[in-house]
Design brief:
7 helices; alpha+beta; globular; single chain
Length: 199
């Protein structure tokens, strides 16, 4: 049965048990991301969000960078859980890197000085909406994904290895792949306890 928008949002979760296969072809994943880059809103329509989609060797190379970087910082006797976590991401089908093009964000801040202090926050909000939209779209297609934040300690090497422009600020990383297990139940605070209705 075709999922609805609301059911896809409801079913979207952090899925850590993923594999290097996909229920849909690579070109469909790319097309979904392209569509959402065009459709997700941004303040002043600045469209400063950028993504880099990594498959195959590029995907593996990225998680090698993360592994090496963390190995230099985490004591050897405590590294096993970290290594297992990074390996679980590396076994995925691909990774989406989310960036903000700060050249665009800073230009808008200069052009609209009254709101200049807000543009970085607005860029992060727009990027968050993009992350959520792509995550939900992947869920709808039967893919599991989770969101990681190993920036800024990996930023310099990632930019060098993948030829990323200097003005791109790395915000998040999303490994994805076919699910090998459903996520555990999560504790949810009732929406009614987190909302006020005023008339």
């Amino acid at each position: 049965m075709k999922k609805t928008f609301l059911s896809s949002i409801h079913e979207r979760r952090s899925v850590y048990s993923i594999t290097n296969t996909s229920p849909i072809p690579k070109n469909k994943i790319v097309a979904l991301i392209e569509m959402l880059l065009e459709d997700v809103p941004s303040a002043f329509n600045c469209q400063s969000a950028r993504v880099v989609v990594l498959f195959e060797q590029a995907h593996k190379n990225f998680w090698d960078i993360v592994m090496r970087t963390l190995r230099e910082r985490v004591p050897a006797e405590k590294f096993a859980p970290t290594e297992a976590k990074i390996n679980s991401f590396a076994t995925g089908y691909g990774t989406i890197l989310y960036f903000d093009d700060e050249g665009i964000t800073e230009t808008f801040a200069s052009n609209f000085p009254t709101y200049a202090a807000n543009f970085k926050t607005w860029a992060d909000q727009a990027n968050g909406m993009l992350q959520f939209a792509i995550w939900t779209a992947l869920e709808e297609e039967g893919l599991g994904a989770n969101l990681q934040h190993y920036n800024p300690i990996i930023d310099a090497e990632v930019k060098e290895v993948f030829n990323i422009p200097d003005q791109y600020r790395l915000i998040a990383q999303m490994p994805f792949g076919a699910k090998t297990a459903e996520p555990d139940e999560k504790e949810v605070i009732s929406g009614s306890d987190r909302m006020r209705i005023l008339e």
